[in-house]
Amino acid sequence: MDWINRQLLKMEWLEQAVEWFLNKVLGLDGESVFFHSLSFFMYDVIKIFILLSVLIFLSAYLQSFFPPERTRRILGRFKGVFANIIGALLGTVTPFCSCSSIPIFIGFTKAGLPVGVTFSFLISSPLVDLASVLLLASIFNWQIALAYVGVGLLIAIVGGTLIGVFHMERYVEEFVMNAAGSVRNQAEEKITTLARLTYAWEQVLEIIRRVWIYIFIGVGIGAIIHGYIPQTWIETILGENNPFSVLIATFVGIPMYADIFGTLPIAEALVFKGVGIGTVLSFMMAVTALSLPSLIMIRRVIKPKLFAMFVGIVVTGIVIMGYVFNAIAFLFL
């Protein structure tokens, strides 16, 4: 397992190859700040694109078995908190980011699913997916990756359950509740193995096309943090000695528009500079679950009270998670 983690996920062989190329071929000083920043940039960009392509293909093939109609039917079989648990779990294996989850939320609501269950799905879907879990393991370790999944699912389950308990469906916009064209009557298309493989490859191309710029930006920022920003600066703002570090990281992450794949290199550089793992994960979760475009779209389909409750639950869960992780970081690092 250790060899798999180091060579297949962390790709230590690639890191060594990049350093050899920069040092022996380009003749760069291996002790210089520029060398370390450029090495970080090249290694992370290549590693993320390799892993991302493989993981998207595999997860998209699995996701092809869970189209919206089938997901709706599965969710409709369960009641109460168990339905929230299933909704959150299905969110981890469905191919929806925070923005594309909104039409699915509308479809589920029109189909008569409880609003609390649809919110468990809505929170979980962008926050936790197979590719992000494996990429987290490649940068940190399996303990952190699995803990991230557990916290993401917990926030989704608790959030959806609270929304259901308080009967917040009355705060969904009328056009969503009353619109015609329910997804109940949509037929589920039979998909061949070839079609699934084609879909998986198309998802690789589509997602790479959509996120490549964020990967470059994220790795670029990470490289600057890694090489040029003094550790004392980072520790002063986001270090464990600052009791507001988790709050700062969360509220800095909320307005950002980036994919989790673009935030991972920033997270890696921050951990290297001594930032607590809880603070880093809070930043990542805020960017992923509460990006500004998704918040704008969500606000268009729900009323202010439900919107405030949704944001409040997710932010509170992220902040609590951040402080807890910082307090027990010795278990994960």
List the helices and strands and how they pair.
Blueprint: H1 2-9, H2 12-25, H3 33-63, H4 68-76, H5 80-91, H6 101-110, H7 115-127, H8 130-139, H9 142-165, H10 174-178, H11 193-227, H12 231-238, H13 245-253, H14 260-272, H15 277-289, H16 292-301, H17 304-327
Descriptive overview:
- The chain is mainly alpha-helical.
- The chain has one domain.
- The protein is 74% helix and 0% strand.
- Helix 5 packs parallel to helix 7.
- The radius of gyration is 21 Å and the shape is globular.
- The two termini are 17 Å apart.
- Residues 180-187 have low confidence and may be disordered.
Give the helix tally: 17
Number of strands: 0
Q: What is the CA-atom radius of gyration, in angstroms? A: 21 Å
Structural class: mainly alpha
* Average pLDDT, all residues: 79
End-to-end gap: 17 Å
Features:
about 325 residues
Q: Would you summarize the structure shown here?
A:
With 333 residues, the chain is mainly α. Helices cover 74% and strands 0% of the residues.
